[in-house]
Specification:
Butyryl-CoA Dehydrogenase, subunit A, domain 2; two-stranded antiparallel ribbon; Butyryl-CoA Dehydrogenase, subunit A, domain 3; 46% helix
Length: 269
C-alpha cells in the first residue's frame, strides 16, 4: 500500500466487532462468494480512522470455509460501507474512531489477502507488532509527564522554596524516572528482536503490559505534582496526557490479552 505509506490514502484495520473485542478468531461478519467477488455483511466497532479510510483490511468468515479470512476493501465509497464517527472520546482525539456497518459490500476475489482461513494468524501477527508500538507510545507519554513534572517542580514555589526541594516531590520524580527507564529497556529489547527477525511476541507483550502501567503511574504522579494546574488543560498538558494514557491499556489488545499471551507463552515452554 504505497499510497498509504506516502500519506496519500488512509487505511484502517477492520477487525474488532461489538461482541468479539480483541478475539481475532471469533468474527460474525460473513462473506459469500458470488462469481468474481464476495458479498460481505456484518458490523465492526472501534475502528481507528474507519470513518475517513480510503481502504481497509477486513476480517470475516467466508461461507463454507473454516476460520477467519482477511480481505482488502479498496472501495469505501460504495453505499454498503456505512461508517459513522464515534463521538465523545475520552482521549486520543487526534485520531477518530468509527463504527462500520457492512451491507452487501462487494470485494473482488482478487482482494483476498493470503490464504483462506488464515486471517486470525495475520491479525495476531499485526497485533504483536502493534504491542511494541503501544509500548513505545507509553514511553513517550511517560517521558513527557516526567519532563513536565521536573520543569514545573523547579519553578513552582511553596513554603518559600521550589517544590523540587521537597522530599515528597523528589521521591515521586525518582519513582517515575526509575520505572520509565525499566519500561524503556523492555521496549527496546522487544523492538530489537523484532527488527532482527527473531521471535518477539513474549517480549512485546511484556513490554506493552509494563510500559502502559508505567504510563499510568507517571501521568498520575504528574497530575499530583501539578495539582490544580494539571487538572485544568488551560495551564498544562497533563490533563490531556491523563486522558490519552487510558487508551493505551485498552486498544490493540488490552492488558488482559497481554497477560494471557505472556502466560500461554511461558507455560507453553
Amino acid at each position: 500500500m504505497p499510497d498509504c505509506a506516502a500519506g496519500k490514502k488512509v487505511a484502517a484495520f477492520v477487525l474488532t466487532e461489538p461482541g468479539a473485542d480483541s478475539d481475532a478468531s471469533h468474527q460474525s461478519t460473513t462473506a459469500v462468494e458470488k462469481g468474481d467477488h464476495y458479498v460481505v455483511n456484518g458490523e465492526k466497532i472501534f475502528i481507528m480512522l474507519g470513518d475517513v479510510a480510503d481502504l481497509g483490511v477486513l476480517f470475516c468468515r467466508v461461507e463454507g470455509q473454516s476460520g477467519v479470512s482477511a480481505m482488502m476493501v479498496d472501495d469505501t465509497t460504495q453505499p454498503g460501507w456505512q461508517a459513522r464517527t464515534l463521538k465523545n472520546k475520552l482521549g486520543v482525539r487526534a485520531a477518530t474512531a468509527a463504527g462500520i456497518v457492512l451491507k452487501d459490500v462487494k470485494i473482488p476475489r482478487a482482494n483476498l489477502l493470503g490464504e483462506l482461513g488464515h486471517g486470525s494468524e495475520y491479525a495476531l501477527a499485526t497485533l504483536g507488532a502493534a504491542a511494541v508500538s503501544v509500548a513505545a507510545q507509553s514511553i513517550g507519554l511517560s517521558q513527557r509527564a516526567l519532563d513536565e513534572s521536573i520543569a514545573y517542580a523547579k519553578k513552582r514555589e511553596a513554603f518559600g522554596q521550589p517544590i523540587a526541594k521537597l522530599q515528597a516531590i523528589q521521591w515521586m520524580i525518582a519513582d517515575m524516572a526509575t520505572r520509565l527507564e525499566a519500561a524503556r529497556g523492555m521496549t527496546y529489547h522487544a523492538a530489537l528482536k523484532q527488527d532482527a527477525g527473531e521471535a518477539f511476541s513474549l517480549e512485546a507483550s511484556m513490554a506493552r503490559l509494563y510500559a502502559t502501567q508505567v504510563a499510568a503511574f507517571c501521568v498520575d504522579r504528574a497530575m499530583q505534582i501539578h495539582a490544580g494546574y494539571g487538572f485544568i488543560g488551560e495551564f498544562s498538558p497533563i490533563e490531556k496526557l491523563y486522558r490519552d494514557q487510558r487508551a493505551l491499556e485498552i486498544y490493540e489488545g488490552d492488558a488482559g490479552v497481554q497477560r494471557l499471551a505472556i502466560a500461554e507463552n511461558i507455560i507453553g515452554r
